[in-house]
Specification:
single chain; about 110 residues; about 85% helix
Length: about 110
């Protein structure tokens, strides 16, 4: 379940970064999205963070759930900010799709 929370947090941070014009242009060049689409990315990002929070609280209760959620957000944010944006920006969007799927597969298999 924690891999799913990590994948959801990573996808949420990618969506929130795509809601910013600066990161939109870094990832897609001159083909920036419209303001309506950027607002949609923002709502999607906050929704995914909420889903990751709900998953962590459902799994471990109110005592440890928020702690696990903050840990998943920290790991996802560090991976995105210090690993992928500076060195491998083309990997960001495919990983945003792949990590939640891998987390779901791990949650169902384990």
């Amino acid at each position: 379940m924690m891999l799913l929370a990590l994948g959801l947090s990573f996808a949420a941070f990618v969506a929130l970064s795509l809601a910013m014009e600066k990161h939109q242009l870094e990832l897609h060049g001159k083909a920036g999205a419209s303001s309506a689409r950027m607002r949609l990315w923002g709502w999607l990002g906050w929704g995914l963070l909420s889903a990751a929070f709900a998953l962590c609280v459902w799994r471990d209760g109110w005592g440890l759930g928020p702690v696990w959620w903050l840990g998943a957000m920290t790991a996802a944010g560090l991976l995105l900010a210090f690993g992928l944006y500076p060195y491998r920006p083309r990997w960001i969007v495919p990983l945003a799709w792949a990590l939640p799927v891998a987390g779901m597969a791990a949650a169902t298999l384990l």
